[in-house]
Amino acid sequence: MTTAITGATGQLGSLVITDLLERGVAPGEIVAIVRDSAKAASLDERGITVRVADYSDPAALRSALDGVDKLLLISSSEVGQRVAQHTNVIDAAEAAGVSLIAYTSVLKADTSGISLAPEHLATEERLAASTIPSVLLRNGWYWENYASALPQAIESGTLYGAAGDGRLAAASRADFAAAAAAVLTLDDQGGKTYELGGDERLTYAEFAKLIGEVAGKDVAYADLPENDYAAALAGAGLPQPVATMLAGADAGISRGELDTDSGDLQTLIGRPSTPVADIIKTAIA
């Protein structure tokens, strides 16, 4: 049984491979699909098969998926190009005779109003039309997404955002990777949808308080209108599209779109999600 991971040298993909190995999957049964073989030297050294293919190169993708049974399609990082790129991967998987595709989507993709959701939903629809059974890993937000904001929040005593009183069921990247690895090692996953979120469903005010407790300083949350927060992020140096996306995600949090109490993550990984305080400690260390 051969399992392939796209984006295998990325932050999520590399963690999935580590988790698969820890679960006893033989290195020779893992195919790492990467854009740059130079970044995959450590995978090659561990006996993992490395194949080079870009999401935008159908021929290379078809070759990379030869002999693959299960495929983890980690969503592309190129927002705006994702549907075409993901379609290329699915087309190649169909041509290669892959038996299962697991896809990293976003929480509540079919109802979410955040800007990232439509491309994920379109990919889910393409998978539903495929001849290959698929399983949807609807990942919530990563707590690591806030790592770059922590020093400023601790220094100033203020965490800014536009999430109102909405709750955020985020989890660590490693937790989501463990869930993906679990699905890849289980049978009968075709047709399943997992809504994945952490145990600690925090408001930004609660998150700010926790940041302060870990750092030994008082940190409070300041809620801004979505447009004002986007402008502040752009003013801090983020590209305007990124600032708009992040502010829009906060608005989604205010509407409950990045919150879940499904328990799917915990069931898959067999434990509670990583404590948020531990993630904060690692980020500020």
UniProtKB/TrEMBL annotation:
Gene3D superfamilies: NAD(P)-binding Rossmann-like Domain (3.40.50.720), UDP-galactose 4-epimerase, domain 1 (3.90.25.10). This is NAD(P)H dehydrogenase (Quinone). Residues 3-246 form the NmrA-like domain. Transmembrane segments: none annotated. InterPro entries: NAD(P)-bd_dom_sf (IPR036291), NmrA-like (IPR008030), NmrA-type_oxidoreductase (IPR052718). Signal peptide: none annotated. PANTHER family: NMRA-LIKE DOMAIN-CONTAINING PROTEIN, QUINONE OXIDOREDUCTASE 2.
